[in-house]
Amino acid sequence: MDTHSKNSDHSYFASAGTLNNQLTDIHERLRVSAPEVDRISFALYDEENDHLKTYADSTFHGFELLHYEFPLSELPALKICSETGDCRYLNDIPNQLDAKFPHSKWLIDQGYRSSLAVPVFQNKKFIGFIFLNSFQKDLFNQSMTEALKPFLEIIRFVVTSEYDLVHSLIDSASLVHSQSQEHWQESSEHKERICRYAKVIALEVAHIYELDDESIENITLFSKCHDIGKLSIPVSLLTKSSSLGHDERDQLKDHVEKGVEIINKIINEMGSPDHPCVAVLKEIVAYHHEFLDGSGYPYGLTQEDIPISARIITVANVFDALTSHRPYKQAWSVPFALLELEKMVANGKLDRHCVNGLRYHQEYLKKVIEAYPEPDPKDRLDRH
Question: Where in the numbering of this chain does the HD-GYP domain appear (predicted)?
Fold first, then answer.
């Protein structure tokens, strides 16, 4: 894609806020003509796991359903809509939904009586559902949907625009990374593990740092880009079997600022979209080696100057370094690695809540390590 078309695609984001904020604004305008609509939300489809996940809600900081996902395959009516593009109407929710499911029970408990579900597609790919809910029975039908069409089109636009921006950033970073197959192979399992550790931590600290599902999704996805600056470092240095010299350590540390340069170039080629998700990506790349006591690099930030997105990736990164085989050391067990992280908390380096977020999920961490094992250095050398 050329620079001009990228500029056109993402020029909308000159002043866009989070999707939660945009849905809140649209909801306020919609209620002027349709005051019976009490909630707008968007549930994101996770194709890898076949899950629908809560993502954005116009009632955020109200009584929203948060940090929840459910298999689409177990929602037959919605599954059909995701395939046909048709809307789904519910007009007597307490009698139409099974309260044994947490999401159904939540809707009933909140007093919602009717619901409209509109499937959303991006380039013919199903990406999730827009939901409109009302406390009034029998509100939604085809004629009501037609009346709401201008608002539904706006909602669809802001949803697909954000989805496109997030995935364009990730795809651009992946394209840059894939141009060096040696670096790609060296880091592929590491990126998959970091992504899963980041999600676990983000979910655990969400209530402490007021992270909504949109923020958690961005942190999880962009975690894979944290080390993009290592493209500037020879693979021979990244995989060196002996300890590094002073100059080599400095060269390795340079990867953070090189990563910032790469990400800024990608963002500029997209027309410099000013969107909160872009800030999250920049934070992760720039600050994932900072420690709370100021002893990190390259900026020596302390405490509140380090955003929660970067604190999460720092903890995930240190944990992964401890639990991965290296040419010069054996991998630590999960319990021993967590003990080391807790020492770093006691020494004022790591965020205590982020470390606790890992500690609560030790069996899951072991499964991630098994599913995405670090290649034996000898095998890696054979491939090269």
Answer: 165-374
pLDDT of residue 214: 94
Helix/strand/coil for 62:
coil
Identify whether 125 is a catalytic site residue.
no
Residues 272 and 151 in one domain: no
Residue 335's CATH number: 1.10.3210.10
- The secondary structure element, H or E, covering residue 201 is helix 181-209
Q: Which of 305, 306, 326 minimizes the C-alpha distance to 314?
A: 306
Q: pTM of this prediction?
A: 0.86
- One domain for residues 133 and 275: no
The domain tally of the chain equals: 2
SS (H, E, C) 235-295: HHHHCCCCCCCHHHHHHHHCHHHHHHHHHHHHHHHCCCCCCHHHHHHHHHHHHCCCCCECC
**DSSP annotation of 99:** T
Three-state DSSP class for residue 13: helix
SS (H, E, C) 14-25: HCCCCHHHHHHH
Q: What is the DSSP letter of 330?
A: P
Q: Residue 37: which region, alpha, beta or left (left: phi > 0; alpha: psi -120 to 50)? A: beta
- Which segment of 1-5, 30-34, 49-53 scores lowest on mean pLDDT? 1-5
What angle (nearest 5°) sits at the alpha carbon of residue 194, between those of residues 228 and 282?
45
- Tokens representing 73? 């395959």
Burial of 208 (0-12, 13-18, 19+ CB in 10 A): middle
SS3 350: coil
Q: Which of 199, 230, 282, 349 is catalytic?
A: 230
Q: How close are the terminal C-alpha atoms of the chain, in Å?
A: 31
